[in-house]
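# nightly structure sweep
# worker-07 picked up a monomer target from the shared queue
# config: single-sequence mode, recycle default, output format = structure tokens
# input follows
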Amino acid sequence: MSTEADAGDLTVDAQGVLERFEHDVTAVASLEDAEELHAAYLGRKRGAVTALFQALRDLDGDAKRAAGAAANQVRQTITARISDVETGLKDSARRSREAAEAVDPTLPGLPDPLGGLHPITQTLLEIQNVFVSMGYAVVDGPEVETDWYNFGALNFPDDHPARDEQDTMMLAGDLLLRTHTSPVQIRHMEENEPPLAIIVPGRVFRRDTPDATHNPMFVQCEGLVVDTDITMADLKGTLDHFAKALFGPETSTRFRPGYFPFTEPSAEVDATCPACKGSGCRVCKGSGWVELLGCGMVHPALFDNVGWDSTKVQGFAFGMGVDRIAQVRYGLSDIRAYYENDLRFLRQFTT
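# output follows
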């Protein structure tokens, strides 16, 4: 039979459990610590408070009631204290999270990153600016053309290699993706009367295999001047001025005989290499010159095709690959880098 002394010992044990808890609870710094403390005192298998209630089985009568009241009081106290501690930790975590996520409306906004013009676009705009400053108008036209405007009206013979499907991207019927911007010159002459001076920038398409100097889609800029008494000297002076405006006043030009169906006579134009200034480098392959564009006097057949009297008007035309001009200007060895969309490369050209 249990005695009053047994009940007193259990009451003392309950007080000791409470004192140990008050010591241990001060070390709780996280919800994980609180969970471990709960298990240590209130856990069903190894909790210190649970042990107090298990000891009540050895008591009976008034002793059991007294010891049970003490154990119950300890359990309530510890349960409440752990709940308070957990609530405090949760509130503290919430306040920290809210502080980290808080938005101060008085702070200046974060700037959005700004894009920049593609180097080919930059080059094209500078080319346009040179000719606009000389009084040229900028015109454009469709990228899907007919065989007549792309070839026939430009004096291409029926058996010309450019009309083969291996060179031209053919569509349904006689439609195709234009291989140059020259069709716009024909369209403009059909709708206007001389004198005129225009440039035609735009995308063109050819069945080229991509390599260091070719791409199946690229940008061209062509020019056309028509008036009376236009001579080859006017063409040479115009293009020499263009080269100096684009690459620098020290730039020289040279004209080599060439052939184009829509011009006669025709010429290829070279300019002093902008990378080495003519001394020879990898860009110009040691020659000191880089190929710039093709040009010539407008073939009389083109005037006849648009209903103009070829005995009364003359003109000159020229055309350049803007991608190629940009490649030469920036000393780039592989033109494909312009189309790979590598921001590390493109950011070099942003201003």
